[in-house]
Every structure is written in C-alpha cells, then in structure tokens.
Amino acid sequence: MTISNGFWTAGIRAFGMASVSMLALAGVAAQAQTQAQMQDSETAPDERQAADTPRGNQIIVTARTFEEDLQDVPIAVSALTDEALTNRAADDLGDIADNIVGFAFEEFTGLLAQPAIRGQTNLRLGSPVQNVATYLDGIYIQRNYLIDQGLLDLERVEIIKGPQSALYGRNAFAGVINLVSRTPDLDEITGHIRGGIGTDEFYEASGTINIPIIPGKVALLAHAAYQTFDGTIPNSHPLADAEGCVTCGNLGGFERETYQVTLRAEPSEALSFQASYFHTERFQEHVANFSFGTANFLDPYNYNNCSDIDGQNRLYCGELPGSPDFVTGAQASPLFGPVPDSRPDGFLIDPRAFGLRGPTDVISARVDFSPADPLTLTYQFGYTFGDVDGRGATPRNPLEPLPIPLGPPFDEPQTFFDSSGSGSEFESYSHDLRLTYESDTIYGFVGANYSTTNDIESNSTDVFPIGTLDTPQEIVDRLFYPIGPGEPIFPAFPGRRTFLERDEDILSLYGFLEVNLTEAFTLTAEGRYTIEDRATIDRLTPDPNDPTIQALEPPRDDITEKFFTPRFTATYAVTPDNLLYASVARGVKAGGSNGLGVPFLPQQQFQRETNWTYEIGSKNYFPEIGLTLNAALFYTDWNDLQTTEVRRLADGSLPPPGTSSTITGNVGSVTIKGGEFEGVWEVTDAITFDFGAAYNDATYDDDVTAQRFEFSLVCDGAVCPTGPVPIGGNQLERVPVFDAYAGLGYNGEFGDDGSFYLRVDGSYQTKQYVDEVNLAWVPDRFLMNMQAGVTFGNISVRAVVQNLLDERYVTNALFLLGTGGPQSSSYVPIFGLDRTARISIGYEF
User: Fold this and answer.
1) For the chain, what is the radius of gyration of the CA atoms?
2) pTM of the model
3) What does each C-alpha distance from 808 to 148, 613, 829, 842 come to in angstroms?
4) Cis omega (within 30 of 0) on the bond before 409?
5) Cα–Cα dist 517/523, whole Å
6) Residue 22 pLDDT
7) Which residues of 662-686 are buried (b: 16+ CB within 10 A; e: fewer)?
8) Which of 37, 78, 140, 519 has its CA 20 to 30 A from that of 834?
C-alpha cells in the first residue's frame, strides 16, 4: 500500500505540474495573440480566423453520440482512424488495446472475451453482459462474439473511458468501444481491392466499392473481406494434421469472412437516411494453452508449488510458467499413487476442440429529419443475431483416457471437452427516437430507447473416443439431445449442463443538455432513467412428476429493475486549443439470475453493479511545436461486485468446509485510483511520435474476503489463512496496474506521385494477478511491431511484422477452484501469437 500511495501521490504531482505547464504555455500563446491584435488591428480578423482552422491530427468523433472534434470532447477518448488502423496493423480488439493505454482486451476463447477499461472487467467470466459496452454504428452489441471488427471497413474506432451509462445506456459501466463504419460518398465512385500473404499460411483478400446511384442524393457502399491463418504455435497432438481435425496444424488460427453493405440517401437538406447490413462467418481455432493443477479424476499429476495439505500442493504461487514443459516439484496424487507421466512435450490440444464458429448479423438503419432550423428528429433501428458453438479441450493430457467408466455408448476410452457456449444464440431488436435542439448557446436532446433481447446460453461437458478424431453420431445425439418440454433428459456428465433462456425488455428515457455560459465556460448535464424487465427460463429442469423428462412448465425467474444514471461535466477553455474539464458520472451494470434451482431464495438473483467516477482532465494542442497532449486523473468507487459467491443451503446457512459449489453474487467493493496521458508530436513534417501511459490502481476494499478460497479448503494457513481469507488492499485480478505505448513513424514522398512510410510501435504492461488473493500472476510483457508501406499512384504495398522480438508470452489465464472436486485448483495460461509477417498489395480508384 505504501508503494501504491506513493505512486498515486507522485501521479497527482506530475499531473499538477503538467497542467501548470500546459496552462503556462496556453497563457503565453494567448498573451502573444492579444499583443499581436493590439499591434495591428487590420490583421486581427485573420488572427481570429486562425482559431477556426483545423488542428493538427484533427479527428472527428461521435463519443457523445454527435460529431465533434476529439479535442473539444470533455471526456477521455482514444481514437484510431482507418489510416491509423492500417498503418499499425490493428486487426482486432487485442491489437487495438496494444495501441491504446487504459484499455485491455482478454480473449480466453472465441466465446469468452473480456474488454477492460481503467481496471474494470468482468470478474465472472460467464456473465451475459460486460462492464464495457460495444457499439457498431449506434447499435449495442451485447455479446462480444456478435462482431468481428477486424474485417469491417471501418472509418474509426473510439475507446471512450469512464462510465457512459447516461448516454449509451446499460452496461456502459466502465466505458464504450465505439465502432464507426465507413459512410458512402454521394458524389464519387471510389473503391479498392487488396490481397495479401504471410507466414503461417496467412492469406487475405478484400474489396470495397462506392457507387453514387443518384449523384449527390443516393449512394451504395459494398465491402467484402476474407482471411485465413494457421496460427503460430505447433500442436503436439499426434493427430493435429489428420483427416477430421477441426483445429488443424498450429494453434490459434482462424478463417473468417465479412460482408458489409451500406445505403445512404439525402433526398433533401432536411431529410437523410442510412442503413447498413453486416454479416460475418467465423471459425476460430483453439488457442494455445495448457492446464495444470491438483491431481483429480481427470489428471493424476500435481504441478502446483504451494499450500501443501495432506501431501499435495493445493495452489500455485508466483509467475505462471511460460511453457507447458515444466516440472515444479511434481507430486503423485495420494489417490492414484505414482503414475508415469506420458504426456508429450509442447502444447497438447485435441484437434476436435475449437474456439468459436458460426454466423452473426447486425442491421442498422437511421433517419434524420430537420423540419425546422433548430430541431432535428432522429430514429434509429437495430438488429443483432448470432448462432455460435465452441468446444474447449480441458485435460492436461488428452491422450490419457478418463479413469472412470461411463457405460454405453462410452465404452471405448474417452477424452474430455468443455463445450461452454455450444448451441448458444442471441437475437435483439432496438428502437431509438431522439429530438435535438441546437442554438448558439444551447445544445441538447431528449430521447427514448426500447430494446428486446433473447439470449440462449447452452453449455455441455463432452467426451469423445480417444486416439481417433471420430465423433460417433450416437454419442453426439446423447450429448446434445433436443431441448423442449417433455423431451428426454440425461445426466449432466457427460452431456448438457445448462440451457438458460434470458428474455429482456428494456425501456429508457434519456436527455443531454449543454449550456455555454460564457465563451470559455460550459456546463453539461446528462441522465438516463432505465426500466429493465428480465426473465430467466431454465429449459433444462427435470419435470417434478417425471425427472427423466424436461419440465412441461420450465421455471421462470422474473426481475424488474429501475435506476437512474446521471453525468455532470464542467468545461473551461483556457484558449481555443486548451481546455480543462471536471466530471462526475454513475455507471450501472445489469443484475441477473442464478436460476430457481438455487436453494437459498435471496441467492437466486444477483443485483446490479454500480460505480461513481470523479475525473479531472486537460486537452491541449500546441501548434507552435505540433504537439497534442491530453491527460486525466480519476477516482472510481465500484460497489456490489458481481463475482463468485459460495452457494448457501436452503436455510441460508453456509455449507460445510470443502464444499466448492459457487454462484454469482454481489460481494464487496473496489476502489480505483488512476491517471493517464496520451499525445501525438509531429516532430517534423516527416516524423511523428505517438505515446501514452496509464496507471490504474484497482484494489479491493478492506471488508472483502475471498469466499471460494475459504470454503474450498485450499489454504494451509501460511500461504493464505485457513478461515476467512481477507483480500482488502489486494489488486483486482486480470487487469494490469500500468501500461504504456509508444510509436515512431517516418513518412515521405518521392517522384511525382510516390510516397512511403515506416513505423515501429511498442507496448508494455505490468504483470496481472490470476487470483484475488494475489498468489499467482501473468508476467509483464513488452511487444514490438514494425510496419512499412509504399504507394505508387493508385497502387500500394504494405508489410508488417508483429511481435518483432518473437516473444513467447502469456496473455492471461483462467483460474478455477473446486471444478475437480474438493480442495482442487486448476490454472490455464493462454498464450499470444509468436512473430508473424505479412505483405499485401492494393489498388485504389
């Protein structure tokens, strides 16, 4: 805590000194401008007009849902334009996170992906909603698997930091990922075609065409893209390249295609219309990972290194290993005795496992009508749909058969899979109506939003014959039996574990008002009142009269929540290029249901998370030296965390020690203190330097305990207490405390129509803890990328090398307690890609 507080104090001082320096520079610039005006009044109009000219590195964003200069937005926003995305080879949210400080993206599998902003992420991975909201062209994307932004023809990506629940609504708890697609050009035929090739069987092709159907009135933009990649880390499984493999060859590859169509029409100055359709087909292979932990019925080996209880280490302490080829005091299980370890070296994943596959669709339509000069009426429609599957390989050694007999049709030796997400489906509709008023001193709008969602979460535990890639149909039918009232129901192992259907009806009324009290001082008030009606239906419940069939009337859990999320901001423009702001905002993340099968009534539902964030910031552009520099300090009070809680007995009493059954509950609170800065320095016309750093000190408050550690009996009294396990002051798991980014670009021209660029980027993040007791951690990492490009007229050639130093690194890790029985633990480090290189050629017209 001493180091943390010292860092915080130093951060405040540094920010104060930076702010004073910025204000001093701004004051000198303002004084110089005033003196020039006094000396020559005839040139004063030109001097005043200079303030209205575009700033360097100007980016227009829609962070507050309407267009404005990034430097005028009193919110911490990081934005990457289409050119920046291309030049930095940012193909997915993981790449984008490497280029933006204060933003992280964890991808465990295709179905389990977690964005984090300012130290706030989902502590319960299976949560149906996120702490960070994702939007595509104004449409809320509730499930991360619904969109693959890497192949879209995007105009811009915005990472909006801090609670945005007032404007964006539900689950914009920590911030927003705002994806903006390209708008059709009404006047010119434009387009491009591109193709590329790279290491590890990387191939890509894409094309875009923009056609003015009625010049100046109607235009159509169509885009299609395809990519395939084999991954970089070899799979040691002997059948990795055999016929019937799903994850073939290396691990971490993919095959994906995207189709995008946008129609824009402006029949008059008062009326405009735009509609888009996005369709993706994706297949993501299993990521490179390995599993280790206590000995259990799936694995008779123990590679943990601490908390010795009854002759077996129950936990792992320290930095997670960077390779599956390790032995740290391996212990034979007292249950199984000494068993030879026949596991091959390297990463070992059954080739039938995969991360994600399935189609997704997003439809957006918007109409703007301005019947009178100060008023605009806007209606926006949205539709999202996804139907996906996933199958994870869980055993440390999938070549070893399950040691327990399962009976027919599982008579042959079987290996084990966790198919969390297989058969999941999501569909939503949304309608938004807004009336906007704009004058010289007042800008505001009021609106209403109504949305419905149908979210099906399907999970199963699968077993298939070992030593072959066959998946006999009789086993598939047994594992994935139909869901419906009266249909047969089978034991949960192996087979379906859950099939939950969540239906939601959400109505919200919102408003925004910005008043310019003076030319320099502005006040903004935002607010949203939300009513959520949610129903969770457990389709996989046995009928009370006949437990061999599914319930004829499935149990239904209804929840209604009402809440208000305000935001207030004060902005002071020191000069037209330098402003200060202060804000306070409330964020809300929706609650949910654990199901009616939970014996203790109050635990059948968990409540919403809330936070209050207080922020001061400064945005600055110094034209004399070509520097854009933005900074912010913030304090977040995060309450009612949705995290793991021990399942109580029907009377509310705690279960006996050794019980590991858990549910989602509201447990404790977290305090986050942090600061960040980002900048772009145009050193010369040819050299640009981008940089940034963020510090997010997210720690549990003093009264929080780790319930799952206490009741799973994994603590020996030395590594962690045998009774209640206090974690107050511990760092929040799965988020780095500090991250930084820097990029240096050099560009120039040659000949009549030739240009080139060369760029190097580097990103760093500190270690992140795997568990809430802060015993094990993912090590820190530093990654570098290099990009280069040359253009000859309409032809461009681009080359990129990612992970330039070829680091083998752990991106994040799963940590599980009790899944292998009492006193068990399991760790699953997940690895990023090794060095890759690719080159592409394109033609633009």
Assistant:
1) 28
2) 0.91
3) 25, 37, 12, 32
4) yes
5) 7
6) 38
7) bbbbbbbbbbbbbbbbbbbbbeeee
8) 78
How many other C-beta atoms lie within 10 A of the C-beta of residue 548?
Answer: 9
* 3-class secondary structure, 317: coil
Which pLDDT score, from 0 to 100, does residue 768 have? 96
Residue type present at position 789: G
Q: What angle do CA 40, 44, 45 make, to 5 degrees?
A: 150
DSSP of 571-607, one letter per residue?
EEEEETTEEEEEEEEEEEE--EE--TT-SSGGGGEEP
Under DSSP, is residue 49 helix (H, G, I), strand (E, B) or coil?
helix
Token pair 């006040």 is at which residue? 523
Look at the block and give the residue holding tokens 């423009």. 573
Q: Which of 148, 209, 153 is nearest to 181 (CA)?
A: 153
CA 502 – CA 457 distance, rounded (Å): 8
Give the integer Cα–Cα distance in Å for 629 and 578: 10
DSSP line for 359-409: EEEEEEEEEEEEEETTEEEEEEEEEEEEEEEEEEE--S-TTSPPSS---TT
* Structure token digits, residue 688: 């640009």
Domain ranges of the chain: 1-53, 54-325+340-844
Answer CATH for 54-325+340-844 from 3.40.1190.10, 2.60.40.290, 2.40.170.20, 2.60.120.10: 2.40.170.20
Tokens 């994994």: give the residue: 714
Strand partners, 556: 537
Tokens for 25, please give them: 């520079």
Distance CA 490, CA 474 (A): 14
Strand 202-214 and strand 218-234: the pairing is: antiparallel
Instruction: Give the per-residue pLDDT at 10.
Output: 37
Residues in CB range of 92: below 8 A, 6 or more apart: 148, 149, 150
What's the DSSP call for residue 120? Answer: B
Residue at 362: amino acid letter: V
- Write the burial class of residue 357 (CB in 10 Å: 0-12 exposed, 13-18 middle, 19+ buried): buried
d(C-alpha 380, C-alpha 430), whole Å? 8
Phi, psi of 73 (to 5 degrees): -85, 120
Give every CB contact of residue 821 below 8 A, 6+ residues apart in sequence. 296, 297, 660
Give the number of other Cβ atoms within 10 Å of residue 410's Cβ.
Answer: 19
Q: Kindly state the helix (H) or strand (E) to which residue 132 belongs, with its residue range.
A: strand 132-136
Please check whether residue 212 is in contact with residue 199, taking contact to mean a CB–CB distance below 8 angstroms.
Answer: no
- Report d(CA 96, CA 104) in Å as an integer: 9
